[in-house]
Amino acid sequence: MEIDTKATITLKRSFGKMLLILPVLVAFLLGAYFMPEKVLVDEDVLGFELTLGTICIFLICALGALWLLEVVRNPVLKIEIGPEGIWDRRVSENYLPWAKIRRINTKAVHGTDFLLLEFDKDFESELKPQWRYALSMSLNRLFGEKSHYIDAYGFGVEFDEFLHLVETYASTYGSPAASTSD
Questions:
Q1: Helix (H) or strand (E) holding 113
Q2: CA–CA separation, 3 vs 18, rounded Å?
Q3: Which residues contact 46 (CB under 8 A, 6 or more apart)?
Q4: What is the pLDDT of residues 128-182, one digit of tens each?
């Protein structure tokens, strides 16, 4: 496949694939709706169980509401790959410049392939991720993971093709990762 590295490639997430998550969300919300009846009516459920059940219900409803809000606010999610760098608004408000990407790697988690990017330490401190992504990265760092994850699921491109695009642009625009990617 011939790649014009002077052009910016935009990959848009399919709204239809995002809606595939909706049945799971509805199932959780229905569970959250009917769970309090069991928890509050059952006389054997007291103290810790009641508190834990209430917290779970709240979390399920809150996460479902946040996801729906995100879909409504930003129905079209996109990744741009171009001469300036790679841009995924889930990771940063701005392009991630090729010159600041130290390492490109891949990882499969529960059947989904992820692109892992490691940045220069000085750039890492300047990065302004969205709050959800920042929270996710903080939790990942507790387990020793320092890379930034980008998944291409639902963007209409096979992961191998996505990886090839990123590596080609990184090599063309002098990323230090071009010589270290696995």
A1: strand 112-119
A2: 28
A3: none
A4: 777 667 777 777 778 777 788 888 877 888 999 999 999 999 999 988 876 554 4
Contact 130, 69 (CB under 8 A): no
The pTM for the full model equals 0.69
Closest residue by Cα to residue 154 from 97, 98, 71: 71
Beta strands 112-119 and 101-109, pairing class: antiparallel
Q: Which amino acid is at 44?
A: D
- Which residues, other chains included, contact 86 with Cβ-Cβ below 8 Å and sequence gap of 6+? 79, 80, 95, 96, 98, 101, 117, 150, 166, 169
CB 116 within 8 A of CB 106: yes
Residue with tokens 């490691």: 118
Looking at the DSSP bridge assignments, the partners of residue 153 are none
Question: DSSP characters for 119-139?
Answer: E-HHHHHH----HHHHHHHHH
Residue in the block written with tokens 């729906």: 68
Q: Are strands 78-82 and 85-88 parallel, antiparallel or unpaired?
A: antiparallel
| Number of neighbours of residue 165 by Cβ within 10 angstroms | 20
Strand order in 9-12's β-sheet? 9-12, 78-82, 85-88
